[in-house]
Design a protein that fits this description.
Distance between the termini: 7 Å
Helix content: 10-25%
Oligomer: single chain
Strand order of the largest sheet: 1-4
Number of helices: 1
Strand content: 35-45%
Radius of gyration: 11 Å
Number of strands: 4
Shape: globular
Structural class: alpha+beta
Largest sheet: 2 strands, antiparallel
Length: 62
């Protein structure tokens, strides 16, 4: 299963790889650019929670 993560404003979490190889993230309105994960692992959930930094979010199945 794939999931996208949406904040309370209805925007999706997007993770990007920068030219330097580091990862960056922002929110996007485009579901196709949203960061998706095939399986729901506890580590991944904790990672997402840290990126949302206390903001409310919901997991949307795609």
């Amino acid at each position: 299963m794939k999931y996208a993560f949406k904040n309370k404003d209805g925007r999706y979490f997007q993770e990007r790889y920068l030219m330097s190889g580091k990862r960056s993230w922002k929110f996007t309105d485009d579901l196709r650019k949203a960061y998706k994960e095939r399986s729901n692992t506890p580590q991944y959930e904790r990672y997402i929670e840290s990126k949302f930094d206390g903001l409310e979010y919901e997991r949307v199945e795609i």
